[in-house]
């Protein structure tokens, strides 16, 4: 049996960033934030992140970690499930 060599990193051309998903999540965050009348800077402060980072999340330029999703949900005073549901609705995965 031959020993396989281990290659570091991802295979060429693969990515962990899903732009469509990131944009849908950002739109869900922005919609909830505006519904609640919260400024982006205020939301960022409540979530414990930089305002510029929150802007990237809302524009879909950054795919947040689970930790950040939970912090954003807490700052919006909703569950992470609400954020995920809104995201799924925007993606057309579930019907509203």
Automatic annotation (TrEMBL):
Q: Which Pfam families match?
A: HTH_3
Which SUPFAM superfamilies does this one have? lambda repressor-like DNA-binding domains
Highest taxon in the source lineage: Bacteria
| InterPro entries, per the entry | Cro/C1-type_HTH (IPR001387), Lambda_DNA-bd_dom_sf (IPR010982), TransReg_Diox_bact_type (IPR050807)
Record has DNA-binding as a keyword: yes
Keywords, alphabetical: DNA-binding
Q: Where is the HTH cro/C1-type domain?
A: 29-83
Xref: PANTHER family: HTH-TYPE TRANSCRIPTIONAL REGULATOR, METHYLPHOSPHONATE SYNTHASE
Under what name is this protein listed?
Helix-turn-helix transcriptional regulator
From what organism does this protein derive? Comamonas resistens
